[in-house]
Write a structure and sequence with these properties.
By secondary structure, this protein is an alpha/beta fold. It has helices at about 5-25, 45-60, 75-85, 105-110, 125-130, 140-150, 170-180, 195-200, 245-250, 260-279, and strands spanning about 5, 35-40, 60-70, 90-95, 160-165, 185, 205, 225, 230, 240, 255. The chain folds into 2 domains: about 30-115, Rossmann fold, CATH 3.40.50.10860; about 140-260, 3-Layer(aba) Sandwich (Rossmann fold), CATH 3.40.50.720. The strands form 3 sheets. The protein has a 6-stranded parallel beta sheet with strand order 1-11-8-7-5-6, with helices on both faces. Strands 3-2-4 form a 3-stranded parallel beta sheet, with helices on both faces. Bound molecules: guanine (GUN).
């Protein structure tokens, strides 16, 4: 029976550490500001944005909020990003995704200065990660590395399987695990023999966006299982990409949903904001 990796507790520890660092920076005369832009009023995005602003307040940095109407043009959004790029008092810029269909997401991501790209989505940030140069790292995969580190999971030499190849999670996750000297396999919807591949994983990281897709028989006894998915059923109950009750029988360590990976994303966003200030 697996032990639980408590993402709520670990994210709280990280936020306490960051709060201390922010206090130190303040003594040196540096105050931080994160600009948060939301276009439209998607309810899920509104919840994320609210939580990001709350986290800023908690660790002691300012947040500057831009709630733009759904019909905002791409040009208007790009002009705002340009102003924020130039604003020396703003350290980080975040455009909550998804943006409305008439706005091109890639163009928006590319417009944010890599120096302020606290989401780590800019091609320059991703390129830096690929070749091991300093740059902002996408928050969810960076948070997973922290969960593993602080749970004393040995990554060096481990067989790590990443299920899913998204730009935000799967791909940067694989690069980060490589940096930790794991042997990494990335699987996706065209992968043959997924179950056998997963059963070889010492560390199994699942980010497919399909509810309870990974069942107990995909898990090697004693494996560490990280579940990035979050799904809400008709009774408002949350579950992940992993069938938790089955997986916890086989795994040695597992992240629950909720309370596993989820809280780490905002903690690492705050980490990136503090890094932006310190630079
Ligand atoms: N939408 C869902 N997750 C994220 C995230 O991590 N950053 C941004 N900007 N938008 C998101």
């Amino acid at each position: 029976m697996a032990n639980i990796i408590d993402g709520k507790k670990i994210s709280a520890e990280i936020k306490e550490e960051l709060k201390e660092q922010v206090a130190q920076l303040k003594l040196a005369g540096i105050e931080g500001t994160l600009a948060v832009i939301q276009v439209g009023d998607d309810p899920a995005s509104s919840v994320y944005v609210r939580n990001k602003k709350k986290a800023c307040e908690y660790i002691g940095i300012h947040s500057k909020s831009f709630e733009l109407p759904e019909e905002t043009s791409q040009k208007e959004l790009l002009d705002l990003i340009e102003d924020l790029n130039e604003d020396a008092l703003v350290h980080g810029i975040l455009v909550q995704l998804p943006v409305p269909a008439h706005i091109d997401e890639k163009t928006v991501i590319n417009a944010i200065s890599p120096k302020k790209d606290v989401d780590g989505f800019h091609p320059e940030s991703v390129g830096a990660l690929t070749i091991g140069q300093p740059g902002f790292v996408s928050c969810t995969p960076a948070g997973i590395i922290e969960l593993l580190r602080r749970s004393k999971v040995k990554m060096d030499g481990a067989n790590c399987v990443v299920v899913g190849r998204s730009n935000i999670v799967g791909k940067p996750m694989a690069l980060l695990m490589l940096r930790e000297n794991a042997t990494v396999t990335v699987t996706h919807s065209h992968t043959r023999g997924l179950k056998e591949i997963c059963r070889n994983a010492d560390i199994l990281i699942v980010a497919v966006g399909k509810r309870e897709f990974i069942t107990g028989d995909y898990i090697k006894p004693g494996a560490v299982v990280i579940d990035v998915g979050i799904h809400r059923d008709e009774n408002n109950k949350l579950s992940g990409d992993v069938k938790y009750d089955e997986a916890k029988q086989a795994a040695s360590l597992i992240t629950p949903v909720p309370g596993g990976v989820g809280p780490m994303t905002i903690a690492m966003l705050m980490h990136n904001c503090v890094e932006a200030m310190a630079r």
